[in-house]
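Q: Joint fold for the lines below.
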Amino acid sequence: MSNGPEPGWKRRAYSIAALRQMARSTLPRPVFDFADGGAEDERTLQRNETAFDRYDLLPRPLNGAADRDLSVTLFGRPMTMPVIIGPTGLAGLFWPEGEQAAARAAAAIGVPYCLSHGSVCPLETLAETGASPRWMQIFIYRDRTFTRELTARAQAAGYDALVLTIDNQFLGNRERDIRNGFTIPPRFTLKQAFGMATRLPWLFRMRNELGRVTFGNYVRPGEVNNIRALAGRMSSLLDPAMSWQDVEALRAQWKGPMLLKGVLHPEEARRALSSGIDGLIVSNHGGRQLDGAPASLQALPSVVEAVAGSVPILIDGGIRRGADVVKAIALGATAVLVGRPQLWGLSVAGEAGVFHMLELFRREIDRTLGLLGKSRLSDLSRDDLLERR
Ligand SMILES: Cc1cc2nc3c(=O)[nH]c(=O)nc-3n(C[C@H](O)[C@H](O)[C@H](O)COP(=O)(O)O)c2cc1C
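A: Joint structure:
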């Protein structure tokens, strides 16, 4: 048995949906569901994807779009296409050194990579890959000293932007994880593991990793790396009492672009501007937190209107096709982030799988633009969409 991907994987991974199916047959059920699932009845999770169906694309083929340019500039840095790897905790559970693999793939394509607070690899280790631009995502912790420490570490390690996630003040109620007995971090008994005969390649690949899967950023120097203690500490660290004062304190500390992730309300978007925030991510955490929150795409237009071009607006949630990216941009987003697709790419083929996932997006965006009769993303507007009533 080898550590590598299955032969012929690339041919079968012809779309993001196909990649998901392949991840499903590769991963143990509790691990697949941890990534795939959402909160409670998963209504928000489903709407994230179906919201894109509300808009049709209105082509003007005779515009002539022989050459297409997919590049965008964000915070003064060019990116080759408008797809960013979003922060997902425990990516190292899907492939050995999963975070480093995904960051390398993003750098090779020329897009930013955002590390999760809950990465397996410590932020300093990720920085050693040299992947750039790299962003760091954090929370406001009950222990404000820890919040400041993590921020200072990200600054010292040369991260280009700070992403403060504001919709994770409690852990969402993820019922698939309850059903599967999945805990964060995961614990598998050997018996459970060997019951998963068709998942042997994953198990073999991860044989030296599973014991080490932990929240790498939470181990303070000199501390014993005890994953159960760390998981307990993490949930007790989250602070439902966080407020704009915390955002402003962080803004004062961080030198560089700072984004808020998890903005859905136009009023909150406007308020963020007066706190000196440089960018917003319209997001409902991939439907993993507040079930009943609107689809990100549904919330996008009013946030765009509230901000009126002052700062870039990004969006994530349910983006599975190049056409979805094009629709989000036509509605006013500068770029999108993808969460689960990177984990499916990782599960299937590690770094090559994430690279392939990004390539699929690149090709699909390019083809969609061409069929629309557009040469540049900046030419897209609401006029290119027909809203279904
Ligand atoms: C397994 C998993 C772990 C995640 N961990 C984090 C996290 O640590 N911090 C964060 O801000 N968002 C986290 N997210 C949310 C993603 O950043 C993103 O908002 C969401 O996945 C986007 O939706 P998509 O998966 O449909 O692309 C996580 C998502 C998944 C699927």
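Q: Anything notable?
A: The chain is about 40% helix and 10% strand. The radius of gyration is 20 Å.
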